[in-house]
Amino acid sequence: MRISNWKIVAAAAAIAAPLIALPAAGADQPKVTPAVGKPLSEAQKAMKANDFAIALTKAKEAQAASTHQPYDDYLINQFLGNIYLGQKDYKDAETAFEAMAASPAMPPAEKVGVLTTIIQLSVNNADWNAVLQYADQLQALGPLPANVVEPVAVGYYNAGQKDKAYALAKPVVDAAQAAGKAPPQALADIVTRQQLSSNNPAEAEKTLENLVVNYGDPAAWAQIIATTMFQTKGMHEPEALNFFRLRMVTNAKCTPDDYQTMASVANDLHYPVEAEMILEHGIANHDITAGDKAGSMLGSIRPQAAKDRATLGEFEKLAIAHKTGDFDVKLANTYMGYGRYADAAAAAQRALGKGGLKDIQEAELLLGMALAASGNNAQAVDALSKVNGGPRGAAAHLWSLYAQRKYGSTPVAH
Question: Measured between alpha carbons, how far is 110 from 89 in angstroms, rounded to an integer?
């Protein structure tokens, strides 16, 4: 699996200024021949006006006029590289910067900047062989600049050199975590995958928690939920449903088999509306289709869901009137499946207030989940902190991470 969440950001703005200046008269450096300098001067004016089409035409005029003096060609490629960046043509930009790197006329002071830009572009273009080639050249000059550690690590990982990627990523992730900051997402992803593959689940869990809290990555949520469920003993359908609900609110990545299992569990527990909503979520995310095995369940579930909706009002009255809170717990569960999280929180709170519950922790967990799903995060963390041990404690921990998320209330898209 490749790391794909690093993309070039504002590279043109970062490098254009030092790379496109024509040498001043009398400067102690090679001179540009007049036939090349004139169209490049016009290209420079067009670039300042953000007219990259005219700039490209003028740069190619300079290229056609060149007698291939090394410094002329080096400067032409500087212009071409920056123009292509301005046009977001990253493949041609990479080619131009590679020509600069190969030029005997490249000033030593510009070498780090040129190599850094090639690496950023080659990662963006998934040109992993180029990443390896130019990363080695850059490292030969000294420690990697901070702004290139992430793309080099991504390049190493995707080129199959995962140990090198991990060696670059781990110190950065550790330093960020020690400072209470979010590490770069791609680096945290590399560290997590290596920790999981090297059978280091405790460290992987810490890194995954950091990923889900800071970024809400659907793949990271899917991984941490699946890992926790696998490692938790005593998991039965009612407990599993608490994890499935977290999958839905976090938009965690799910397979068609996942959707089929989740919908079946919800329906088995007599929450047909929740089963319906799970399947509709899968269809909306293009994870399943109405015609496949999971999607085809909708046909049998919809009548049950319609009946549940028709009888909900009657059950609401019954639960509110009941002396103990057990019916309110059932109602809170039902509301969770409807996506009525504020109502679910109110029902769970009412259940706890009435007392007489067979299982107080079920109500506490429901309250915490409903509060987190409705955005009442501080209250959710407090309620979830009262749930300890077993599958419910494991679910409460993950829901608490969701309540402490730093990436906003809207789940990240797949």
Answer: 22
Distance CA 47, CA 59 (A): 11
Angstrom CA distances, 144 to 141, 151, 153, 367, stand at 8, 11, 11, 49
Record the tokens describing residue 128, joined without a space: 């992993």
- Please report, for the chain, how many H helices and E strands are present, in that order: 21, 0
pLDDT of 71-122, one tens digit each?
Answer: 999 999 999 999 999 999 999 999 999 999 999 999 999 999 999 999 999 9
Q: Residue 28: which region, alpha, beta or left (left: phi > 0; alpha: psi -120 to 50)? A: beta
Q: Residues, the chain, total?
A: 414
From CA 187, how far away is CA 207, in angstroms rounded?
10
Least confident of 35-44, 90-99, 125-134, 187-196: 187-196
What pLDDT is stored for residue 211 in this prediction?
84
* Amino acid identity at 21: A
CA 287 centroid distance within chain: 18
pTM of the predicted model, to two decimals? 0.69
Q: What pLDDT score does 410 carry?
A: 46
Contact 348, 325 (CB under 8 A): no
Pick from 205, 273, 200, 243: which is nearest to 392 by CA?
Answer: 243
Query: Which residue segments constitute the domains of the chain, with CATH numbers given?
Result: 11-151 (1.25.40.10), 165-215 (no CATH), 219-403 (1.25.40)
Q: What share of the chain is helix, strand, coil (3-state, %, to 5)?
A: 70, 0, 30
